[in-house]
């Protein structure tokens, strides 16, 4: 169809089909952007008089992206079962150790898998992830609880790569893959509808918020958000008058240490 015969209804129909029938919200957004560029080009060179894509309200046609909820566990019995399953996992060493550390630090899968020795400071007990690796594009400093320090020291003694903490068993110059982590959890008996690696983040947030409400703990939403490295941490930085999250390391360390102890208590109860 010639571009000058395409109508807004044609474009809206395509975008709605991608979003509703295929469930591809981000794809619909990208298609809208690409069509806008094409029509701008056509207007510039006078193939068409106006850019009809520009007048389509994405907020109405495509809408906001629905927040994805990852399956997780929040009941202590389920958490205990998961932690014990991780301890009993007998897969390759890198995957074993990544799964043992992940519950305590609840990082995104990419950050745990791509962890490098240069990011770890055992003396100051912090893990500094560069901005280039962060979803927020802001450097993230994570205080490490004693449990994680102990596991990392064990990793050091059995170091498999000079770069990555968790190198692939197939290629020590590459980190383990996301599929490796997911497959390990499946081998433990958990389906994709029961638990995924990202679920450790939801577990932390839910448990801490619930405990804080029930037991009067002083852990604020700001500190929880800071530990999760959410965009909201920008607001927290302002409160502490620092350009990065180092100014709030003390309350972050207190909370992550409390949570690590909580996990151990649940597992050993």
From TrEMBL:
A GO molecular-function descriptor: DNA binding
Core-binding (CB) domain location: 1-43
Domain of life from the UniProt record: Bacteria
Pfam families named among the record's database cross-references: Phage_int_M (PF22022), Phage_integrase (PF00589)
Domain Tyr recombinase, chain residue ranges per copy: 68-253
GO biological process: DNA integration; DNA recombination
Classification via InterPro entries: CB, DNA_brk_join_enz, Integrase-like_cat_sf, Integrase_catalytic, Integrase_recombinase_N, Phage_int_M, Phage_Integrase
Keywords per UniProt: DNA integration, DNA recombination, DNA-binding
Membership in a protein family: Belongs to the 'phage' integrase family.
PANTHER family for this protein: PROPHAGE INTEGRASE (PTHR30629), PROPHAGE INTEGRASE INTS-RELATED (PTHR30629:SF2)
Name of the protein in its database record: Integrase
Species of origin: uncultured Sulfurovum sp
């Amino acid at each position: 169809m010639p571009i000058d015969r395409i109508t807004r209804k044609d474009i809206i129909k395509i975008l709605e089909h991608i979003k509703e029938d295929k469930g591809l919200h981000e794809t619909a957004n990208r298609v809208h952007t690409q069509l806008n560029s094409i029509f701008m080009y056509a207007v510039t060179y006078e193939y068409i008089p106006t850019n009809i894509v520009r007048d389509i309200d994405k907020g109405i046609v495509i809408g906001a992206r629905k927040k994805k909820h990852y399956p997780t566990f929040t009941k202590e019995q389920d958490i205990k079962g998961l932690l014990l399953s991780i301890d009993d996992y007998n897969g390759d060493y890198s995957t074993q150790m990544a799964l043992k550390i992940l519950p305590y630090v609840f990082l995104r899968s990419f950050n745990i898998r791509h962890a490098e020795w240069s990011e770890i400071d055992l003396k100051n007990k912090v893990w500094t992830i560069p901005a280039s690796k962060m979803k927020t594009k802001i450097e993230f400093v994570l205080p490490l609880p004693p449990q994680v320090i102990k596991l990392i020291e064990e990793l050091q003694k059995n170091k498999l790569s000079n770069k990555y903490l968790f190198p692939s068993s197939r290629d020590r110059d590459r980190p383990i893959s996301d599929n490796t982590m997911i497959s390990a959890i499946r081998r433990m008996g958990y389906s994709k509808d029961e638990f995924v690696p990202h679920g450790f983040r939801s577990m932390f947030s839910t448990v801490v918020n619930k405990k804080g409400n029930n037991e009067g703990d002083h852990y604020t939403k700001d500190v929880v958000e800071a530990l999760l490295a959410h965009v909201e941490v920008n607001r927290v930085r302002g409160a502490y008058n620092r350009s990065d999250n180092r100014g709030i390391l003390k309350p972050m360390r207190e909370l992550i240490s409390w949570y690590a102890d909580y996990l151990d208590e649940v597992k050993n109860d």
